Amino acid sequence: DPLAFAIGECHKRGMELHAWIVTIPAGNTRQVQLQGRSSVVRKNRTICKLYKGNWYLDPGNPGTKEYLSCIVKEITSRYDIDGIHFDYIRYPE
């Protein structure tokens, strides 16, 4: 488990490790196809929007909040993480 290993190594050295989550972008059409069934677009299409050839989670959809909350809950319940950063938590430009 790479994350558990990284956390352990950081903590041994007195460092913190923060998870960095890219929240809204889900990838372009090709990337989504390459991800196959593991893609959020395939698993939870109702919270996704296609915009200018790229897929995004819809920040205005309450399901997006629920989806991201589940990810954070999984990380915080499984790992001794020191923090979480949310990146790209905005509408696409």
From TrEMBL:
What keywords are assigned to this protein?
Hydrolase, Signal
Q: Which Gene3D superfamilies match?
A: Glycosidases
For this chain, one GO molecular function annotation is: hydrolase activity
Q: Which organism is it from?
A: Xanthomonas citri pv. citri
Q: Which residues form the Glycosyl hydrolase-like domain?
A: 1-89
- InterPro entries for this protein: Divisome_Glycosyl_Hydrolase, GH, GHL10
Q: What is this protein called?
A: Family 10 glycosylhydrolase
Q: Which domain of life is it from?
A: Bacteria
